[in-house]
Amino acid sequence: MKKNFSLLLLVLTIALSIACSSEDNNKDSFVDVTVQITSEQTIKDYSNFQVTVTELKSGTTFTEKASVDGKVTFQLPLGSYSVVAEDLINGASTLYGRVENVVVASSAPQITLKVAPITSSLEKSFVLDELYFNCDKNGIFQVYYERYLTIRNVSDRPLYADGLSIAICGDYNSIEVEKNEMDDYLKKDTLVIGQLYTIPGDGRTYRVDPGQSLVLANSAINHKLDKDGKEDSKKVHSIDLSGANFEFFVADPYVQTVDNPEVPNMIVDHAANKAFNWEYNGSMPIMLVKLTKEQREKMVKNQKMFSRPGLSWMKLPHLLMPVTAIIDGVETGYQNNLIHKALPTSVDRSAILVNTGMSGFDGQFIKRKEVIDAKGKRTVQDTNNSGEDFEIIVHGQKSYPKK
């Protein structure tokens, strides 16, 4: 009996030893990893940020909220991880940062993760989709101010459009001048723009879900109607833009458009001609950009006078904008009259040219080609080559009526 008891005690001792050894080994396989969130913006409290680390091999995720000073500490198994920091609220973020292939080994890595506006942090966010600047003759007469554009969320997550801006080149790519000062700035990664308009909001006002678009209209009214408010049968190609999300309304004593009070106005940061001027022939390319309020104010404060190409006597105030602010840009123009590119090839490697005269009004509508992505979802083509990404549909302009 005594011999059996001794044997049992020995077995228990060995089992306990193995268990303790196993526990020590498990502890040794976990490492404390600290993530420090930073930003070029002034952020006094990071506690609304969350950090998610994902083990690349297994897909296991760990999520923690940040402290006020932007620190998060994880106890992670050895492995390789991706790390994401974002101010995620109700499934959408405004600031975002990501690092890939972080190796957690025997030593504890200290990770500094910078967050920036999500539209500039993601590989794909918003693109310019529908572009209608050419307008139409309606068979009998030219119709003005039916121009509009759409911006589309091509990411896989909801995004806010607040603070996005539309910039229009000050340079005319259809005009050749002996000395083009605007082109000289482009060689320094700076664009000369004649107009800048910004979507209002507090940063979380205008949410756009994946695959959805916003409509920005020159004049957000029903253009099908006559002066008595009845549908005009002669306006066979006119469109209804009363349901647009935003309107380009420039308040001026000589303004030619009506301000629809039911449609929010774009913020007018700068309009050199005191009007929304998007040439009917497309010779002034358009861009979707992201600038801070401080950047926009500085640009306006430091505006420069430039002669309108081809009209040396007409000097107008323009803004200098960094190329790095561009989220998407499209080199538009008209066939046989693209004298030089106004946008750098880093933004658009080619151009989409309508078959129209100098005055426009041939009802040519530009739209991105639709494709199916690797996940089987319908989206639009975006290779930064507008000659391949877009198609022209004659009289293809769309109505966006009030709902």
Note down, in words, how this protein is organized.
It is a single chain. With 403 residues, the protein is mainly beta. Helix content is 12%, strand content 36%. It is built from five helices and 26 strands. The strands form six sheets. Strands 3-2-5-6-7-1-4 form a seven-stranded mixed beta sheet. A hairpin with a 5-residue loop joins strand 24 (370-372) and strand 25. Mean pLDDT is 91; it is low at 5-25.
- Main sheet characteristics: 7 strands, mixed
Largest sheet: spatial strand order: 3-2-5-6-7-1-4
- Shape from CA axes? elongated
From the helix content, strand content and strand pairing, which structural class follows?
A: mainly beta
Low-confidence stretches: 5-25
* Mean pLDDT over the residues: 91
Radius of gyration: 28 Å
Tell me roughly what share of residues is in helical segments.
Answer: 10-25%
What's the SSE blueprint?
Blueprint: H1 2-28, E1 30-39, E2 50-55, E3 61-65, E4 71-77, E5 79-86, E6 95-104, E7 110-117, H2 118-121, E8 126-132, E9 148-153, E10 159-160, E11 164-169, H3 181-186, E12 190-198, E13 207-208, E14 213-217, E15 246-247, E16 267-271, E17 286-290, H4 293-301, E18 304-308, E19 311-322, E20 326-330, E21 332-334, E22 352-354, E23 364-368, E24 370-372, E25 378-380, H5 386-389, E26 390-394
Parallel strand pairs: 1-7, 14-15, 21-22
Antiparallel strand pairs: 1-4, 2-3, 2-5, 5-6, 6-7, 8-9, 8-23, 9-14, 10-13, 11-12, 11-17, 12-16, 12-19, 17-20, 18-19, 23-26, 24-25
